[in-house]
Amino acid sequence: MIQPVCETYGVTYVATRGFPSITLRYESARAIAATGKPARIFYFGDHDASGQRISANLEAELRQHGADVTVERMALDPWQVNLYRLPTRPGKRTDSRHAAFAAQFGEASVELDALPPSDLVNLAETAIRSLVEPYEWAEMERIEELEKVTFASLAALPFNAGTTYRLTQEVDHAA
Q1: CA separation (Å) from 65 to 33, 43, 118?
Q2: Can you tell me the mean pLDDT for 98-117?
């Protein structure tokens, strides 16, 4: 559900399905560091002992490998469980992190999959758009539309191998 939203905005999407491997954390941190820019990671995960631990430790783990990164947990949090009236299940008592989770949040756990897809997409898009400058985005869309028109007009021209094509219309550079 989230990947198409990320593709629309040119945002990297990574699904880990549990704890990200040491290799993934290291390679991600190095890729972020190589950009020379700070990065924001929006984390979407289950409301359970493991999901909470992943988001709580991810930023520090990436920073240990040189990434200038901020991790923001977008879902699921207790207030979202209540707001969306999501179905709960008992936490996994076999998880070594369960006792601490239950002491802080209670016994109920919720899978991210319980969130309606439209709400998940909305959360992802809202998070990404919070970092987008609206004027710059609109200007980029305007330029892309002009490029589409230009390429369509070029594609409509007859093509003859070996022919040199020249503009026949004068361009007013003062305008």
Answers
A1: 8, 19, 35
A2: 89
- Which pLDDT tens digit goes with each residue over 157-174? 787 788 777 767 665 555
Boundaries of every domain in the chain: 2-132
| Count of residues making up the chain | 175
Burial 40-78 (b: 16+ CB within 10 A, else e): ebbbbbbbbbbbbbbbeebbebbbebebebebebbbbee
Q: What are phi and psi of 16, to 5 degrees?
A: -110, -25
Instruction: Determine the Cα–Cα distance for residues 47 and 101; give it in Å rounded to an integer.
Output: 9
Beta bridge partners of 44: 75
Q: Name the nearest CA neighbour of 24 among 11, 15, 33.
A: 15
Long-range pairs for 5-11: beta carbons < 8 A, 24 or more residues apart: 5/121, 5/124, 5/125, 5/128, 6/124, 6/128, 9/128, 9/129, 9/132, 11/128
Q: How far is CA 11 from the centre of its chain?
A: 5
Distance CA 46, CA 60 (A): 20
Rounded distance, CA 75 to CA 84, Å? 12
